[in-house]
Amino acid sequence: MKSVGIDIGTHQVKVVEVQTLSKGFQLTRAFTKNLSRATGTDLELEIIEFLRELSTSYDPASTRFVVGLRQDKVSFRNKTFPFADRQRIQKTLPFELEEDLPFSVENAIFDGKIVRVVGTSAEVLAAAAPKIHIAHLLDLMKSSNIEPSIVSTEGTAFANLFERWGDSVLALPASVNSNLLEDEGAERQNRSLRVALNIGHTHTLVCAFDGSALVGVRTILWGGKNIADAIVQKYNLPPAEAQKEMEVKAFILTTKQDASFEAKIFSDLISKGVRDLVRDLQLSLLELKAEFGGEITEVMMTGGASGIQGLGPFLTQHLEVPVNKLNVLEIFPNVNFERSDEANLRYGVAIGLAIDGLRKPRNPALNFMKNEFARQKSLIKDLWTEWGTVVKAAMAASVLFCIWALAREQVAFNLDEVSSELLRSRAREVAGLSARQANEAGVRRYIQDNRRKIADIRMIENLVGMNSAMDVMSKITTAIPDRNSMPLQLTEFAINDANVSIAGYVRGGKNLVDLLQRSLTSVSVDGRVHVDGIQPAVGQTGFRMSFRVDRNLQKVTK
């Protein structure tokens, strides 16, 4: 099956085709249509012509088309429900969101994305979109001869790059946080949030993730067009040429040392435009921190305008959070088209939309094709067309599994009888156990007892020939110069296994301590004597030394 994600922007239309494999999926093709910036151009007509041509390349019976509403046309709220049933949540959404929405609930379509389930409750990312925007998008697709399977959103589609969308919704026991129902803030404190930015032509998508789960979405009405417009005003260039200059040459200097005057002027122009984005980003990050009671640990960015050179360090400096570029295509192992820098910046949302078409009912995609916008085809027919082959294979597999299970049970029973009889026979013949003890427990006790005996014997053998402490002391006494050459007084002499520690005084200076150290190297097993401390005093010098000796321990082989 193929899934085609169509990301309709104000500057480009991006299309990504995804095809399922026996294990996983692959990104097979990607297309981009640059929209005209000439005054008076009908962009919708241009989009329709492109999509009509695209639709002729696919068989509707084996292809899912997925489109997304612009994020600024959708309202998101993070809500907690005292139940986790998806149908009940869907019915409750209009009442939960009624006071939070800037438009009437009668004129909106609702859907929810379950973030996680804790006990019997659920954290849900609830979404609402005005019907007028959904109807307009569906009319556009109808004019393009495309019937979409899913109408999603940019934010939830973009989140597919990070989420484990192929798994079931994360379920945690109620003990993880017993205050989930009483206080939503108690659940959301101490969260470490990652933020992903998709900086487009007219707006920037801000997605917040707790782990790999999307918990919040924001939209900032700032994009590459703001920079292009600033270039138009500064240099009196045509809009199309200014856009190209922005995409190819835009930069922000990290240091102005050794830069030309023209480069400084151009960098200041770009950075001045980006400051508007910084201001709105700071507000969005503060909102996320306040809502979820956590900290922003990382910011990732992609999208066409994220290709501005030096943008990452500039944002890092002003946001005080590490900001790094996201290489979208590096996330996926199977990519059949060129992994260019432009493709990495361009296709994030389109890939996410295509992945929405692969989601399973256990963790479905956000879809606004409900109520009057629902597909008119027979549900049973659609299900059988999509899952008929799987159902047939599952039924055949079930029959084979039942046969295998019965045969396995019989074989296992026979093997158990044979092994039990063989165990009893060997227990009597080899271990000499009585008939009462000739069972599995008796054999285990017999083995454990003999292992303990063997361990004791090996321990004793390991100590055979071990030098005594007196032998070690004799070697040390022989190695030390006589009292006339070295007046020595020991205050401590300790032997612990192969470790020897001595302390005392010599009547003389540090040179006698050095002489004593050199003398003891002949006794040390590795030729090293560590001087742990020297304390000069009147007429004598205190010392502490440690070294290792050979106790002649015998290693016993198995």
Structure description:
- By secondary structure, the chain is α/β, with parallel strands linked by helices.
- A hairpin with a 2-residue loop joins strand 6 (108-118) and strand 7 (121-130).
- Helix content is 40%, strand content 24%.
- It has helices at 43-55, 86-97, 131-143, 154-159, 184-188, 224-235, 239-249, 261-292, 311-319, 341-346, 348-356, 379-429, 440-462, 469-479, 510-520, and strands spanning 2-8, 12-20, 25-34, 63-69, 75-81, 108-118, 121-130, 150-153, 170-172, 192-199, 204-210, 213-220, 295-302, 323-325, 488-496, 499-506, 530-537, 540-548.
- Residues 178-183 have low confidence and may be disordered.
- It folds into three domains: 2-376, ATPase, nucleotide binding domain (Nucleotidyltransferase, domain 5); 392-462, no CATH class; 469-548, Gyrase A, domain 2, CATH 3.30.1360.
- The longest helix has 51 residues, at 379-429.
- The chain contains 15 helices and 18 strands.
